[in-house]
Amino acid sequence: MKGHADYHMHTCLCGHGSGTVEEYVLAGIEAGLDEVGFSEHIPMYWLPPDERDPGVAMREEEWEGYVTSVLAARERYAEISVRLGVEADYIPGREADLERLLAPYPWDYVYGSVHFIGGWGFDNPDYKHQYDEWDVDDLYERYFGLMCEAAHTGIFDVMAHLDVIKKWGHRPARSPLELYDRVAKQLQQAGVVVEANTAGYRKPVGELYPAPALLQALVRHGVSLTLGSDAHAPGEVASGFREAVAELQAAGCRSVVRFGMRKRVEVPLDVKSGAAL
After folding, report:
1. Cα 147 to the chain's mean position, in Å?
2. What's the domain range around 165?
3. pLDDT, tens digit, for every residue of 115-149?
4. What's the total number of domains in the chain?
5. Residue 61 is part of a domain; what is its CATH number?
């Protein structure tokens, strides 16, 4: 996948992935990427230390080592650009705590995501039965409301796996088109980038995040996009990129975003130029 950047990669540090920073960089080189970025799950800063689950995020004592290892890989591998990112959950009311945790480090980008509604970790297979307690239409409204709130905080550069609420295949009963249009408008006003996340192809829903109709709404409202595999093993780096690029082009997307020190640049999504395939 020459010319691409994969900005969403997790290592063994997240507690539910495998592989080292170096193994992911080597996988990116093998895949023909010219840029990779790490976006490890931030420590669960909003919980007391004795309640933090090491199976879903870094431990606090691993935080400094994560940053150091990515920056070391940047120096070691001149043949590929290595970016330092992080994935941080949006927890309403804890924005100041999150900003303090992020402030000391030279991030290239910060991903914002929503994995919790109240105390419910809806994408955790151990708790997916709790979908039965919701009206799915109401759930979609609640989830996307949180995503838009997160976008407007100004903390995040990229909104990760925008419609991950569909992960287990739950779909609203009524048409989501009006909701998608509202969400796209909000994200455009917030000035965030949205990730085209290929992990959806590997999940029960079997579909890119975002869904085709949501992707079309984003493009229609001028929201910029970037690419990420959400790899949790080195063999998943750049997984599904060919299919994702085809979807982006079909939706009318003509460029994707690259990051450096939280500044963005648009790169043409053009097969002939080598920036796409």
Report:
1. 12
2. 5-268
3. 999 999 999 999 999 999 999 999 999 999 999 99
4. 1
5. 3.20.20.140
